[in-house]
Specification:
Layout lengths: L2 H7 L13 H7 L6 E5 L5 H8 L3 E6 L2 H14 L4 E4 L12 E7 L7 H11 L1 E12 L3 H4 L13 H7 L4 E14 L2 E13 L3
Parallel strand pairs: 1-2, 1-4, 2-3, 4-5
Antiparallel strand pairs: 5-7, 6-7
Helix pairs in contact: 3-4
Length: 199
């Protein structure tokens, strides 16, 4: 989907996704010292707003102005502020070494764009900072529920970890996420890759 497609998707008044943060983000940042955070492909801002509520200074980047408008409104309702940047993450270069946390959540791109985004995301991590990549696993296409139905934009944790440069991989694994549906609970197969820039 391109920018116009996403703008059309986000055009309604209701949130496309929930306003609640991703469960894996919440678990993975527990215990991290609060600092500056970068949310790449932030969408409607649910994760960025939650991070801001925890005290993080958050920059949220997305190429959909409709999504960023919703992120701004959600932040306002929650009483927090975000730095919003309208930019395509496939072209956007964050300041190297700037952020204590860089989040890439459910951004699914084909090669070579995926690796380039991950390379720049890695470079943006500050000393002792963390890169967190969360997304649908490649196995979700055939064994899980929801998510992209295009194998070209999916990868496994090892492929994501291999694209991360200059950081120490702390976790790269598949996780399951229950998804309520009208026909009962289904299971999505996701992945978490966590890396840190060590001293």
């Amino acid at each position: 989907m391109d920018r116009n497609d996403w703008n059309a998707r986000y055009a309604g008044t209701e949130l496309v996704w929930t306003a609640e943060p991703n469960r894996f983000l919440v678990a993975e940042v527990a215990g991290l010292p609060v600092g500056s955070a970068l949310d790449l492909a932030a969408g409607e801002g649910r994760n960025a707003v939650w991070l801001a509520e925890q005290g993080w200074a958050v920059t949220a980047v997305d190429f959909s102005d409709a999504a960023l408008t919703k992120a701004h409104a959600l932040a306002y309702r929650r009483g927090v502020s975000l730095t919003l940047v309208e930019a395509d993450v496939t072209d956007y270069t964050p300041t190297p070494g700037r952020y204590d946390l860089v989040l890439v959540a459910y951004l699914h791109l084909p090669e070579p764009k995926r690796n380039e985004v991950l390379r720049r995301a890695s470079a943006a991590v500050a000393k002792n900072g963390t890169l967190l990549v969360i997304g649908h696993d490649a196995s979700n296409l055939t064994a899980g529920y929801g998510g992209p139905q295009d194998a070209a934009v999916l990868a496994n944790p090892q492929e994501i970890a291999a694209a991360i440069t200059g950081l120490e991989i702390q976790r790269a694994e598949i996780v399951e996420r229950p998804v309520p549906t009208p026909d009962g609970e289904r299971v999505a197969i996701d992945q978490i890759i966590r890396a840190q820039r060590t001293a």
